[in-house]
Design brief:
six-stranded mixed β-sheet; RibonucZ/Hydroxyglut_hydro; MBL fold metallo-hydrolase; alpha/beta; five-stranded mixed β-sheet; 33% helix; Sec-metab_biosynth-thioest
Length: 259
């Protein structure tokens, strides 16, 4: 039987070198849940784990049972990607690499843009793609790109304005539009998509449209309008429960327009 997204608690093969284990943590921000990616060359006994996921004992146990873990990579700091990291380290004793030094294990070197990570028979190119957060990173395989939360399988990404900026995010989308050409999109939330570059271009067009809407709202509300005023004006058609997340993105858009 061929598994389709979403498939909780089952390892679903997506490409010859990438399989996904979907965490059972659905929500407004996580969509169907967090995708933990298990990467390995077809002839490798070991694997690379990307984002162990939330603090969910059953999910972390399944990751450890999938194969010996040669390396663990983190796309960014958010808890739905890193909450299970402590147990994951305990079960696998895997080296952990990330941009943020606080997640490093058995390694003293944070991930760097353009470096090649070699593990489980794979060559994985690191591309630093900030914007969603300041520490966001993507991973490029021969046939796929793992984008973390920078690009999702459906919907759009919220910019965490604690350290993410729209200027960085737009630059990161340009990077992914380039490296994603002809490669499958493997996101941290939502289903995989056949062409990462096409989705990156859709995201860029959407952000341009939103910026135009925010500017139009300022023309009506005044140049000093607060983020939530703009949310009420621009996002009147979406569930109000999503307004706090929209506020974060609007704040990033206002910061961008007011540079």
């Amino acid at each position: 039987m061929v598994l389709e997204h979403p498939a909780y608690g089952r390892l679903r093969q997506v490409t010859p070198t990438a399989a996904v284990l979907l965490a059972d943590n659905p929500g407004k921000m996580t969509l169907d849940g967090t995708n933990t990616w298990i990467l390995r060359a077809p002839d490798s006994a070991e694997c690379v784990v990307v984002d162990p996921g939330p603090r969910d004992k059953a999910h972390i146990n399944l990751i450890a049972e999938s194969a010996p873990v040669a390396m663990t990579l983190i796309t960014h700091r958010h808890f739905d990607h890193t909450g299970g990291l402590k147990r994951h380290r305990k079960l696998t004793d895997s080296p952990v690499r990330s941009v943020d030094p606080k997640f490093l294990h058995k390694s003293t070197v944070p991930l760097r843009d353009g470096e090649i990570v070699e593990a489980a028979g794979l060559r994985i190119e690191v591309r630093v793609t900030p914007g969603h957060t300041g520490d966001s990173v993507s991973f490029v395989l021969d046939d796929a790109v793992l984008t973390g939360d920078t690009i999702l399988g459906r919907g759009t990404t919220v910019i965490d304005t604690r350290d993410g900026t729209l200027a960085d995010y737009l630059r990161s989308l340009d990077v992914l539009a380039e490296v994603g050409e002809g490669r499958v999109l493997l996101p941290a939330h939502g289903p995989d998509r056949p062409d990462a570059a096409a989705v990156a271009r859709e995201y860029l067009a959407h952000r341009k449209q939103r910026l135009e809407q925010v500017q139009a709202a300022l023309d009506v509300l005044g140049a000093d309008a607060k983020p939530m005023q703009v949310v009420r004006h621009v996002y009147a058609d979406i569930d109000k429960k999503l307004w706090p997340a929209a506020r974060s993105s609007v704040k990033a858009q206002l910061d961008y327009l007011r540079r």
